[in-house]
Specification:
This protein is α/β, with parallel strands linked by helices and 328 residues long. It has two domains: 83 residues, Winged helix-like DNA-binding domain superfamily/Winged helix DNA-binding domain (Arc Repressor Mutant, subunit A, Orthogonal Bundle), CATH 1.10.10; 169 residues, Vaccinia Virus protein VP39 (Rossmann fold). It contains 15 helices and ten strands.
Length: 328
């Protein structure tokens, strides 16, 4: 990223064209339409009631991007698109792509957030599509990490895991799959419950994973646990909010309990790695006080809450996520 020239600067400047092309293909579910038999622009446009020219131009652009294959007038999915962009595929990541789509307008006003220090996308009730995209997008991302991670973290002897802000429960699910004697509780907003119960049922774990409604900014955490997992919770809040959340989670831990905090972690000077630094801008745009934190900042918060032996585990996830651990 240091060897800049005019070409690279303009490539970055216009890269949103590619992103918006992908977003439109997913938003209109063109990849699924192609897979189920609508293989020409006329077929797809007719089935959806869309303009043929518009559909054809978008399909051809997706062909140019290598996501769709064109044979004469018929279109088929590439192997990648078949796996990742067709609804119903186990590897479908369209929800996360749609979450990115919903952030585009706010990101176009980044300059305003920088100037004022205020978010340009106010927190509030999400509509159904946005909620599904956010929650299932987080599930998409977590499913790429959780199966392998669950085998790397030793939870032997642990009985009850708190997945605070756990959304649809990917981590709770895979920690339980990797530890047959472990049960888990997902504590999250009431609106998350249907998504969590659906995914828990899909993995056959309804007898070992339950859901409790919890707004961790306002509510005390119910129950007692010997391990607490906080994944991508802290970055949505300012330092005071993070301290409060950690203290609440600690208060629900039994003596000897383990806390694990998973988030995008900055270096000690807060100017890298790239994704956590850029993600801090996403929090500036979308939250009142959220940001990425350094490992030392998280360590200090955990120590203040009474945790000991606080350290960063030898794990680096996609987009430079890391895990801090501490014991009560």
């Amino acid at each position: 990223m240091t060897d800049w020239n005019a070409g690279k600067l303009l490539e970055i400047s216009g890269s949103y064209w590619h992103a918006c092309t992908l977003h439109a293909g997913v938003k209109l579910d063109l990849f699924s339409r192609i897979e189920t038999g609508d293989n020409t622009a006329e077929d797809i446009a007719g089935g959806l009631g869309y303009d043929v020219r518009g559909v054809a131009v978008l399909l051809d652009a997706l062909v140019a991007m290598g996501l769709i294959v064109k044979t004469r007038s018929r279109y088929s999915n590439s192997a990648t698109s078949k796996s990742l962009l067709v609804k119903g595929s186990p590897e479908y990541i369209g929800y996360m792509i749609m979450h990115h789509h919903h952030l585009v307008e706010a990101w176009s006003h980044l300059y305003q957030a920088v100037r004022t220090g205020e978010p340009v996308r106010k927190r509030g009730a999400l509509d159904e599509e946005e909620r599904e995209s956010f929650l299932m997008g987080m599930f998409n991302m977590a499913m790429g990490i959780a199966p392998g991670l669950a085998g790397q973290i030793d939870l032997g002897g642990r009985q009850h895991l708190l997945d605070l802000g756990g959304g649809p429960g990917a981590y709770a699910i895979h920690f339980c799959l990797a530890n047959p004697n472990l049960k888990a509780t997902i504590a999250d907003l009431t609106t998350t419950r249907p998504f969590a119960e659906k995914t828990i049922s899909r993995f056959g774990l309804s007898d070992r994973i339950d859901f409790v409604p919890c707004n961790y900014l306002e509510d005390d955490i119910q129950g007692a646990y010997d391990v607490a997992w906080l994944s991508h919770v802290l970055h949505g809040e300012g330092p005071d909010g993070c301290r409060m959340i950690i203290k609440k989670a600690v208060s629900a831990l039994d003596q000897g309990g383990l806390m694990l905090i998973h988030d995008f972690i900055l270096n000690d000077t807060s100017d890298g790695p790239l994704f956590p630094a850029i993600f801090s801008l996403n929090m500036l745009i979308n939250t009142d006080k959220g940001r990425s934190y350094t490992g030392n900042q998280i360590k200090e918060m955990m120590s203040e809450a009474g945790l000991t032996n606080v350290k960063r585990l030898p794990f680096t996830g996609p987009n430079e996520s890391g895990i801090m651990s501490g014991r009560l």
